[in-house]
Amino acid sequence: MSLIRFLTSKTFVKQLLLAVVASIVLAFFALKWLKFSTNHGNFETVPELKGKSVDVAKIELEDNNLVMQVQDSANYNPNYPKYSVIDQSPDAGEKVKENRKIYLTLNPSGYRKIIVPDLKERTYRQARPTLQALGFEIGNITYVDNIAKDQVLDLRYNGKSIKEGTKLPKTSKIDLVLGNGNRPRSN
């Protein structure tokens, strides 16, 4: 039998129609199954969790059929209570599927501690940007008699002298004792 005669035969056309109908029926059932198994069209709204404690966030997420995933954070935000949610992904108000993980970033208990560098015998002009770049704030500046004008003679935190390598929380105010350019008076 030639190829053209086979392609135009009743048997081939019948088999082709059966294959098309079977494909359509199979696709129909596959789509129905996917719609059922993925809850097509059913969404949960992500609640606003920023500023709330972990326990409250967990309850709200469970009420909305969502799953909580906590991410650690080293970025302390003083505008939020300790161990509260400072960020979430996806954002509040977004529509997501049931049992979706909501990633929460928590506020640590305080600023992370940073090592104080060795700034003694450096100028104020060198010390100020170094401290600010590390996240410290410049507190009170006191001048004492010393021939080296504006040279850092001592660093203090809460009125106590601190040494290099001391760990202080970020944003701590460090007081500086500088030389005023005058010779020390002899007794």
Would you spell out the secondary-structure blueprint of this structure?
Layout: H1 3-7, H2 10-37, E1 44-45, H3 54-63, E2 67-71, E3 85-89, E4 95-96, E5 101-106, E6 113-115, H4 124-134, E7 137-144, E8 152-157, E9 160-162, E10 167-169, E11 173-179
Parallel strand pairs: 2-5, 7-11
Antiparallel strand pairs: 1-4, 3-5, 6-10, 8-9, 8-11
Describe the structure.
With 187 residues, the chain is α+β, with helices and mostly antiparallel strands. The chain folds into three domains: 3-37; 44-106, Trypsin Inhibitor V, Chain A (2-Layer Sandwich); 113-179, Trypsin Inhibitor V, Chain A (2-Layer Sandwich). Helix content is 29%, strand content 27%. It has helices spanning 3-7, 10-37, 54-63, 124-134, and strands spanning 44-45, 67-71, 85-89, 95-96, 101-106, 113-115, 137-144, 152-157, 160-162, 167-169, 173-179. A four-stranded mixed sheet has the order 7-11-8-9, covered by helices on one side. 13% of the residues are buried.
Order of helices and strands: HHEHEEEEEHEEEEE
Q: What structural class do the secondary elements suggest?
A: alpha+beta
Beta-sheet strand percentage?
25-35%
Please state how the strands of the largest beta sheet are arranged side by side.
Answer: 7-11-8-9
Counting structural domains, the number is 3
How helix-rich are the residues, as a percent range? 25-40%
What is the CATH architecture term of the largest domain? 2-Layer Sandwich
CATH topology of the largest domain: Trypsin Inhibitor V, Chain A
Kindly report how far apart the N and C termini lie: 127 Å
CATH hierarchy, class of the largest domain: Alpha Beta
- How many helix segments? 4
Question: What is the number of E strands?
Answer: 11
